[in-house]
Amino acid sequence: MSGSAVRTVALTKKYGGVPAVDDLTIEVPPGEVFGFLGPNGAGKSTTIRVLLGLAAPTSGRAEIFGIAAQDVAQAHTKLAYVPADVALWPRLTGRETLHLLASIGPGTDVAYRDELIERFDLDVTKRADTYSTGNRQKIALVAAFATRAPLLVLDEPTSGLDPLMEREFRRAVAEARERGQTIFLSSHLLAEVEAVCDRVGILRAGRLVETATVAGLRRLHRSEVTVAYTGAAPELAAVPGVDGVEPLGDGRLRFGLTGAPGPVLQQLARFDVTALNVREPSLEEIFLDYYGEPVRYDCGG
Ligand SMILES: Nc1ncnc2c1ncn2[C@@H]1O[C@H](COP(=O)(O)OP(=O)(O)OP(=O)(O)O)[C@@H](O)[C@H]1O
């Protein structure tokens, strides 16, 4: 038995001989909010399809709390899922849909569900075929967050939500984490991932290029430092970790810093520095570092 909520080991999924997911090894411990990031076509949805047992691995393994993902009857007693495109039964009302989803899921906290209906501002008396994309998404989110499933798998769950609802989503994630639920969140929305995730896995062309905490990612990447000085300008070009030293005039200069700040602080101490400002990279800048090109947002991000 694995102690992980989600575990893939050397997972590969090929379509027509071409890998959509390539040798992917991920472990998400119980209770973690794990962000799964990558541009279009990186393999996020394919990974989720394998985790849900909707696609079989070409090679390697995928497990939910130690249960093979292919053992759908067992694995699905442990999880609730929100797909990127929520399809609902058109003739059922929102309330009937929530009752149905609760009856087939791993158990629902009905009082919390009713609270979420209010918070997500849902009119559950309407039929599903009158719902907008965002409202369908809200129904699926309310159904998932109200279950006591130990794992919530969310595939780009907020692409149709407005900022107020995005805030409710973040609250609901925090409450799920407090209850000890694990969340596997695939997203394009870097601000969302930055706000709610403990750890992030970055996928490129089916391969995992990095797994780290958001703070850990920042430490690995380039910060922008501005110093103000009087007297001689600090000589920084040869200091390890420093690049792109740029005089700004009026006794200030700017440079990039990657890695530990010790060497540059020692060097700055030799000069008369009057102010120091360090701007850490955003997750978006880190993402660009990995991809070397602007990120494509396809869902209103
Ligand atoms: N059923 C399929 N048949 C053939 N190729 C597929 C199939 N599903 C996915 N692919 C291919 O696998 C790759 C990964 O796709 P996937 O949908 O997993 O990416 P993604 O990261 O979820 O992207 P997006 O954010 O656009 O949903 C893509 O090149 C895609 O064209």
Automatic annotation (TrEMBL):
One Pfam family hit: ABC_tran
SMART domains: AAA (SM00382)
SUPFAM superfamilies: P-loop containing nucleoside triphosphate hydrolases (SSF52540)
Top-rank taxon: Bacteria
UniProt keywords, alphabetically: Antibiotic resistance, ATP-binding, Nucleotide-binding, Transport
Subcellular location: Cell membrane
Bilayer topology: Peripheral membrane protein
Signal peptide segment: none
GO molecular function: ATP binding
Family in the record: Belongs to the ABC transporter superfamily.
Annotated protein name in UniProt: ABC transporter ATP-binding protein
Organism of provenance: Cryptosporangium japonicum
Organismal lineage: Bacteria, Bacillati, Actinomycetota, Actinomycetes, Cryptosporangiales
